[in-house]
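Archive entry. Fields below.
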Amino acid sequence: MSNPAIIIENLGKRYTIGHQRAKRDGLRHAIESAIREPLTWLRSSRPKKLQQVDFWALKDVSLQIKQGEVVGIIGSNGAGKSTLLKILSRITVPSEGRIRIDGRVASLLEVGTGFHQELTGRENIFLNGAILGMTRAEIVRKFDEIVEFSGVEEFLDTPVKRYSSGMYVRLAFAVAAHLEPEILIVDEVLAVGDAAFQKKCIGKMENFAQGGRTVLFVSHNMDAVRTLCQRAILFDGGKIRADGYVDSVVEDYCSGFSTSSRQQLRGADGLAIDRVVLKNDRSQETCQFCPGEDLIIEITFDAQECLEKPYFTLAVRGQKGNCFTANMLLDGHRPKFLNGKGKISCRFKAIPLLPQRYTVQLAIKANNGRDVLLHYADIGSFIVTGDLVTYGFKGEFQTRVSEATSVVIPYEWQLPDGTSATVSLSAPVSAI
Amino acid sequence: MRLLNELDQEYSLETRFGTPDAPPIDELVIEAGRTERQYWRDLWRYRELFYFLAWRDLLVRYKQTVVGVSWSLIRPLLTTIVLTVVFGKLGKMPSGGVPYPLLVLCGTLPWQFFSTAMTESGNSLVMNSNLISKIYFPRLIIIVSSVITSFVDFLISAVFLVVLMIWYHYAPPAAVLFVPFFVLLAFGAAFGVGLWIAALMVEYRDFRFIVPFIVQFGLYISPVGFQSSVVPERFRLLYALNPMVGVIDGFRWCLLGAQNGIYRPGIAVAVIDVIVLVASGIWYFRKTEQTFADVI
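PREDICTED_STRUCTURE:
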């Protein structure tokens, strides 16, 4: 049982970006260079030294995964998670290193890959099953089970282009969930579907893991990672930054941002930021908040020289833009001067944020905003987690976290039938 | 002693990977710069995908069309009419005693099979880029499947030929038994060219514009609307370098009988052509296949 299912040694993946790529992009250029420099062109399989910019999406990654382990792979965008999965599922080849895999691998990098819009649900089950590596006999055997799991019986003979997006996802996951590989690689597929279906999916994956099979699970949903995995691996800049027990690695991921940025902040002119701490209502240091909780940002600074009338601006930023800010240039509540060590803190009350990852940015200006001491630097990050159902959200898409607009201030619908409905993220409904 | 044990272990691992007839444990080694020897085994393992992808393309091809499958009859019909009028009536090309429409159709069918198979397989990788960037399977399957799809179309439109032959009371000679050979030759030609175009198209989308030109010119360069015997004798070998010359000549020989005897060197050249095309196509395809997902 404890044999390694996957052994990765010094894995690296290099992408070539920049001039060389652009030059090779068109046929015209290929022909042109073939005419100009026939010899170089003939040898073009060798790396060109000139104009080549290498980007290592993964570098020196070594790890072992035992059979039956459920491993969460986390990290911010561009950390190399997806590249690793692509290499493991043989979509792309590594530039260096080697991997040894023991067992049949099925990878689910996207729900519904290979679904064809024009085909019916029934036809797509067969097509998708075959693409995912099932044999026809296998699909026939599991057909009823798949249909039942998806819950789209009545629409089996309707082209999937007429499906609602929820039905589409359910059917697609149902097919994938009935693969029976020894190693399952899953990338962020839980980000779709409604809450009930998500629970079903997590349940299916848990079953899968209990059956002694290996699961690699990539997600930005820390709750799901904590529920499913015992071990987590944190990627950062193409390298493994932490590997170990899930809770400590997730904690590391959340706090990691502030530790790494603290160094940069020392550069601020005459003012050093020593420490940034995020706290919740109960004054606990944390990086996980629920919607509606208070967010307290405490900044410990050290002003080497006396600063007169500085302006602090704090901004909370979601994946796609700023959410809200506390800006002394607007409100005018600024300290008369800063000298030596001190502390400044700001409490955002009842943050109306949807579950997602956020960063906190800080800007410091002096001299009526003319001298920029610090220009919107990331000083910390946190995640908001929570089951929206408890806040009274019951739409089909409530789990499909909206990246574009993550602030929800309380609002009230007046519906045509005279009823009204209030929606708010300020506190769980059950608590009222 | 410990060292020996370790050595022993390593050795046994090596042998496990090394022997081709090792027990079918699904062990896999992914390594930089190494063409996996699992490839051909995978091709066999995913054999059902050939069928499924071809089946998908066939199902989808005529969805939301009014006349549906009839399109694969209408296309050769219209081409035959036009080419008969242009070459037979206006150009007054020799037909060697065969009804001119029949002569043209025997060229049109393999030509259309070749041109659609080449176009479709050439486009197939780019069309299926969502699959390529998300799922592993031997990419060769996509190419073969799209040739198979066009082949099914070819079979359907062959019905038209049978009808036309009955109409003209034209019984095929005994050589008709060689038809499968020439079908295979056409299949190989389309597959070989398709491999090249598909692999090149992944990086150079220019081929999207080049392919229609090949198809357009090819119709006139290949002996579709006329007999290859109208080509002066000294150019015939050169002319035969186009593999479709051999294929179409072969088709006419099998189905309509030889008026001037079959031009054997032409067939030989076509066979060599196809072998070179397929072999080099597979070589180039395999060489570039590993980077498809990165480039597409």
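CURATOR_NOTE: The CA atoms of residues 12 and 18 of chain B lie 10 Å apart.
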